[in-house]
């Protein structure tokens, strides 16, 4: 349906997860849909979904169980895509974008936990990079990433932040080589300087956190994913055995000392543990003066949790209402982004949409 259309829009490049069943890049599925009122939502293709899409003339129409719901919009084509770098690589295969309007990079797009059979059970990074995302680059030499960064800044788009996500190198020296060096290149290329966010695995040597800040990072996230200690061990076995639940919290506290209150974030996934545990975890994070980042679980093809049910509307609503209470209790806490994002409703909750 989308492959036959002529208009340009931001297509899903599957930078670090598969998300859609039975699709190829050439199918041109958008990464998000625009719902109006500045709201965006992920597009996840699932057989048997009660939701469906079809074009009616120029309008893309959303239906629920066969009944018309609304006309939806497609995300704007990324103005920094379609550019050729000096080494012949296209910016499309270098730059990632998170949601509709947040450009950045996915550095070191692999995770050594896969080699040990200890990857997080919901993660489809390696499946994505070996199939639908295979054209994307894996290396980020200094010249390549500086040129790509300049294309972002010279695109005419308002870019308040460059967001960088990483896989998990084997050791801290690997981090310095494949993550820290590209971060320095991004910072050096930015003119004027803008915020740089980093989502990564905490280092073994917590002193590396200071190196991130010196490289230009202005906020950082270490996502523990699961608050319940036993479920963390079973769902994230590599993080548990090869790093450790308690050390994860130590790393978050150390990062807060470096970056300041609520400039460090910890993500948890709604739908992978009991509601009470998620609620307790959200408060534990905010009470440590660490920012909260939540994600709604989506069952990706090619993962151990591909058949796990996604959380119900009732559960998401209950968690969002509790999150709203917590934002009132901890008013200094904000969200990483100041826009609606695809797999989270933190921004909506923080802005009072849940009452």
Keywords for this structure?
19% strand, 355 residues, alpha/beta, 10 helices, TIM Barrel, globular, seven-stranded mixed sheet, 30% helix, three-stranded antiparallel sheet
User: In one word, what is the shape?
Assistant: globular
Question: How large, in whole angstroms, is the Cα Rg?
Answer: 20 Å
Strand order of the largest sheet: 6-7-8-9-10-11-12
Give me the strand/helix succession: EEEEEEEHHEHEHEHHHEHEHH
User: Structural class per helix/strand content?
Assistant: alpha/beta
Query: How many distinct helices?
Result: 10
CATH architecture: Alpha-Beta Barrel
Give the domain tally. Answer: 1
Overall CATH class: Alpha Beta
Per DSSP, what share of the residues sits in E-state strands of 2 or more residues? Answer: 15-25%
Q: What would you say this structure looks like, in words?
A:
The chain has 355 residues and is α/β, with parallel strands linked by helices. The chain has one domain (91-350): TIM Barrel. It has 10 helices and 12 strands. The chain has helices spanning 125-129, 142-153, 172-189, 208-214, 229-235, 237-242, 245-259, 275-287, 313-329, 346-350; strands spanning 32-36, 39-42, 51-56, 59-64, 67-72, 96-97, 103-111, 161-168, 195-199, 219-221, 264-270, 291-296. The strands form 3 sheets. The chain has a 7-stranded mixed sheet. Strands 3-4-5 form a 3-stranded antiparallel sheet, with no helix packed on it. Strand 3 and strand 4 form a beta hairpin. Helix 2 (142-153) crosses helix 3 (172-189) and helix 8 (275-287) packs parallel to helix 9 (313-329). The radius of gyration is 20 Å and the shape is globular. The relative contact order is 0.12.
